Amino acid sequence: MSAAPTQPPLAAPPSPPLPPKENDHTPPPIIEEHKIETSKSKTAARDALAGAAAGAIAKTVVAPIERVKLLMQLQFSIDKTSTNKLNTTNGAAADGRRLGAFEVAKRVYERQGIVAFWRGNTPNVIRQGGTAAMNFLLMDWYKTAIRPILIWSLSLPSNRDPQARKKRRAIISSFLTGGLAGGTVTTVLYPVEFIRTRLAMDVGRGTTDVPRLYPGGMRDVCSSIWKVDGWRGFYQGYGIALAGVVLYRALHLGGYDAVKTEILHRRGHSIGVTGAQQGNTNDSKNNKAAGLTMGERFLAAQIVSLTAGTACYPIDSVRRRLMMQAGLPIEKRIYKNSFDCFRRVWATEGLSGLYLGIGPNLVRSFGASLLLVSYDVFKVML
């Protein structure tokens, strides 16, 4: 007889889960806060690097236009004794006639060479790189700082639609943070902007007959101003500049942010108190710029740049005229202060005197638009 087949042993039934122990005080898993802080630091560094790279590229591209604009803007504001002599070289004809942008550009090319169009670009890149990085970085910081106030304001009684109230506060946040960021950056980097303006107005060829005013570049500017005016000389026109830059940055950075928020709101995206929200806010590819095409972003930036640049141009003219007086004896200075400069220019040159060089400046707004759009692109890339 054959043996009966053996049956496989039965598997033991699974043991029931153990009941939780009473008085179990096992601590919850520890959240490593330093990793969160590191992630925030990396995001801030990425934003700063994107802003600096975008600013340096945009300013280098439009540097020739900016120098022509400065030569036109400051053609009648050197000092009482040297105005006529210098005007024949920079932005005005010998008979006092104002030259157009193409005539100024032609003179620069013929008398100083093609490279002269980038004169003063080194401090300009330094300034703009720092400005762009600090502006966008500080905008995020200021948004975080004022967010609790905006959220608290939503708790106040109101008959308006909640979504409309959030949109309104998002726009307020954009303009307020843009102005605060601009004012902070101007205070820190104003001396660099001053040096850049003085170098751009150096109309010498570097030859024996027409020497450079600052052959050593930034070093010569600093030493010449420091000997006469000390550190205060680097802040000539700072008061009017601070007021102007707060207004300009509020319109420029805040306006760009507000336009993007408005477009996304009309497309049905939810709006937070500091802007449009699209998914995970920590994902740079899901930020509020990601919902717009490159063309839409550039168009929004162009409109904002033209509006802000035109509105604030008279303030820019006054502060640069005051810059050009630093280092001169008091008796050779044309203007006493910002108000006196406004008054004299209006009386002698009219409104057009405050808008000298506005044509190249409007063209230059292409660079300002490029800056805003480049920041969005670099931020996603990084």
List keywords for this structure.
382 residues, 12 helices, globular, mainly alpha
Total strand segments? 2
Largest sheet: 2 strands, antiparallel
Please count the helical segments: 12
Order of helices and strands: HHHHHHHHEEHHHH
Stretches where pLDDT falls below 50 for ≥5 residues? 29-34, 79-91, 276-290
- Structural class, by secondary structure, is mainly alpha
Based on CA atoms alone, the radius of gyration comes out at 29 Å
**End-to-end Cα distance:** 80 Å
Helix content: 55-70%
Strand order of the largest sheet: 1-2
Molecular structure report:
This protein is mainly α and 382 residues long. It has twelve helices and two strands. Strand 1 (270-272) and strand 2 (275-277) form a beta hairpin. The protein is globular, with a radius of gyration of 29 Å.
